[in-house]
Specification:
A hairpin with a 2-residue loop joins strand 24 and strand 25. This protein has 17 helices and 25 strands. By secondary structure, the chain is an alpha/beta fold. Strands 4, 5, 9, 10, 11, 12, 20 and 22 form an 8-stranded mixed β-sheet that branches. Strands 14, 15, 16, 17 and 18 form a 5-stranded antiparallel β-sheet that branches. A 3-stranded antiparallel β-sheet has the order 6-8-7. Helix content is about 30%, strand content about 20%.
Length: about 550
């Protein structure tokens, strides 16, 4: 499967493997990391960003692709929406059917609320399903939430909002127990104790995993729980705008059927945005590990309604995305592969960085190796570096890969690559939206009463970089919390007359700023076709 040139490089990797086992490259100093990031990390490329012209974050920068959506016209700007015709009337409306939305729905339902999930694909079609490595929690004797906090705060460049990070780490052990009680099949030893491993940037082994399909297993259990509770799920239906009332409160959302284009009105006393990430915007033309629907819809809707963004200019590029073969380009190669012993190696068989540096540092190191140093592996369609997977079984014994990362093994075997015998080629892939809508410690947005955000659509939890295993954790912690808070809040909410005045006001602001565009947002689905497509009379540029 590998080219002749790649096979020659593999010989160099094999030749140095014995001397590399048990000898790790030194960790970088803080000064070295800062210099590396500024020169090679995509977040520091000026041409990848534009200035936001309107809204609460006016004057700040955003990735060019996100900025374009923020500067686009609403899908319903000139569409007559009859707000007096209410199709759904609930206490808690949850937009998004991934891990955060499902966790919120379960907890809101448990509290007695009339709750409904609306999702533009199906429940479970989300980045949660695609997460592999595991979920962090400080629940072992040699660890503590305080230590977890220090690791995450430093890993996020000391930019995390303390109240959010505090909640994340303090509620982590309970989140693990909650999932375990629901039926999540975590890896356990013969005595029934959960097995934990290191992740990049962690000082303790606190990564809880389900082989290398942790997210899929967690999502399976959450989805089953939603179904078992008979919580209404309206699938293949996208939220396209929030609805507010004459008091300025969120009052529901305008929905659009993804198949028919029909618009419907959902009224709700509280709304939870749990729409996930932005990987399918393909910032700076990077590939992505994200699911098909990750197009930043929640950020656009919340922002147009007046909710500020936080750290919208920081993106996580997972250091190990598949770079070969082309059929799986950008697919996630879980950090767990490195945590169990695989080392990053250049074309000449040299280890060039410590295997468990934080993700942003690792990504920048790989980009430097492939560009500035000329030490990348040529795949015929791009560059990458080796991830020396055969090291795993030399360190831990035959059968470790099949036992610990079976999904990864199967993915590569489909293309004739046995990662037990030969290394694999990786390159950074667009992975996680560090920034999102700004929330307080209870998950409520800063400016819009009764609007909450949970999961990847929220900003500030991780700072400007995220450690492995903390995304699945924030999905559960802040998803559960949003459900509880929404269920408590709706009882005191009295809705006024519903309106879409903010949509027209935003349009006027665009005009005043001199922004002229034919684009519409939210995007809903990525544009991969090279032609225009029509949705209920709207022409969408592809």
């Amino acid at each position: 499967m590998y080219t002749a040139e790649m096979l020659e490089s593999i010989k160099k990797v094999e030749a140095t493997r014995a001397q590399r086992i048990g000898v790790e490259p030194r960790r970088m100093t803080a000064e070295e990391k800062d210099a590396l990031l500024k020169e090679f990390h995509p977040d520091y490329r000026e041409d990848g960003f534009q200035e936001i012209q309107v809204g609460p974050n006016k004057g700040e920068k955003a990735p060019y692709e996100l900025g374009t959506l923020l500067h686009s016209n609403s899908r319903i700007l000139n569409v007559p929406i009859d707000l007096d015709k209410v199709d759904y009337d609930v206490d808690v409306l949850i937009i998004g059917g991934g891990g955060a939305g499902s966790s919120a729905a379960i907890e809101a339902h448990e509290a007695g609320a009339n709750v409904m999930i609306v999702t533009k694909l199906r429940i479970g079609d989300a980045n949660t399903m695609m997460a592999e490595g595991g979920i962090q929690a400080a629940d072992k004797e040699n660890d503590s939430p305080q230590q977890h906090y220090l690791d995450a705060f430093g890993g996020g460049h000391f930019a995390a909002r303390p109240e959010l990070l505090r909640r994340l780490v303090m509620e982590a052990p309970d989140a693990i127990q909650w999932l375990n009680d629901l039926g999540v099949m975590f890896d356990k030893d013969k005595d029934g104790r959960m097995i934990t491993t290191h992740g990049g940037g962690t000082s303790r082994k606190r990564m809880h995993a389900c082989k290398d399909y942790s997210g899929a297993e967690i999502m399976r259990v959450l989805r089953d729980e939603v179904w078992n509770r008979q919580i209404p799920v309206v699938d293949f239906t996208a939220a396209v705008e929030l609805i507010k009332d004459d008091k300025g409160q969120v009052a529901g959302a305008v929905l659009q059927n993804m198949e028919t284009g029909e618009y419907k009105v959902a009224r709700a006393k509280t709304v939870i945005i749990a729409t996930g990430g932005a990987g399918r915007l393909h910032y700076q033309h990077f590939p992505t590990s994200n699911h098909y629907g990750a197009t930043a819809d929640g950020l656009v809707m919340g922002y147009r309604a007046g909710a500020p963004l936080l750290y919208q200019d920081t993106i996580q590029y997972h250091p190990t995305g598949a770079a070969y073969p082309a059929q799986i380009f950008g697919a996630l190669v879980t950090e767990k592969v490195r945590s169990v012993g695989a080392m990053l190696i250049n074309v000449d068989g040299e280890a060039f960085m410590h295997p468990l540096e934080t993700r942003d540092v690792a990504a920048a190191s790989i980009i430097r190796e492939c560009t500035d140093r000329g030490e990348g592996v040529d795949t015929g369609s791009g560059l990458g570096v080796w991830l020396d997977t055969p090291m795993i079984e030399q360190l831990h014994g035959e059968g470790t890969i099949e036992r610990r990362i079976p999904a990864m093994l199967r993915m590569y075997m489909n293309y004739g690559i046995d990662m037990r015998k030969v290394p694999i080629v990786i390159y950074p892939t667009l992975h996680y939206q560090n920034g999102g809508l700004e929330i307080n410690g209870d998950g409520f947005t800063k400016e819009i009463p009764n609007l909450l955000v949970a999961g990847e659509a929220a900003g500030g939890i991780h700072g400007t970089n995220r450690l492995m295993g903390n995304s699945l954790l924030d999905v559960i912690v802040f998803g559960r919390n949003a459900g509880k808070k929404a269920a408590a809040k709706y009882k005191d909410v009295e809705l006024g007359e519903m309106n879409l005045d903010h949509v027209k006001a935003y349009d006027e602001e665009l005009k005043e700023a001199g922004v002229e565009t034919n684009e519409v947002s939210p995007m809903l689905l990525p544009h991969y076709a090279r032609h225009e497509r029509k949705i209920t009379g709207e022409v969408v540029s592809a």
